[in-house]
Amino acid sequence: MQITDVRVRKVAKEGKLKAVVSITMDEEFVVHDIKVIEGEKGLFIAMPSKKAVDGEYRDIAHPINSGTREKIQSIILENYEKVLEEAPEEAVI
């Protein structure tokens, strides 16, 4: 699996949510609404999720193993940093 496109939309408001990202895999499959979040230990990604009837949030789409998750997170955070370098003061959302 290759991530062939990454689209980063920075968030304008203050808070832990820094960006919302869409990735395309193998130019054939897209996952929208991946969040870039500022945590206590730095930036991380949260996969798209939905609130269930019991009040818990469950991922709608997610990697099956930690290696794939790390690969996706690394590529997303790398692209997020590039967007910050290009226009650090501008916000899209």
TrEMBL record:
The keyword tRNA processing does not apply. The keyword Cell cycle applies. GO terms for biological process: division septum assembly; sporulation resulting in formation of a cellular spore. Transmembrane segments: none annotated. SUPFAM superfamilies: SpoVG-like (SSF160537). Keywords: Cell cycle, Cell division, Septation. InterPro entries: SpoVG, SpoVG_sf. Coiled coil: none annotated. It comes from the Bacteria. Could be involved in septation. Belongs to the SpoVG family. This is Putative septation protein SpoVG.
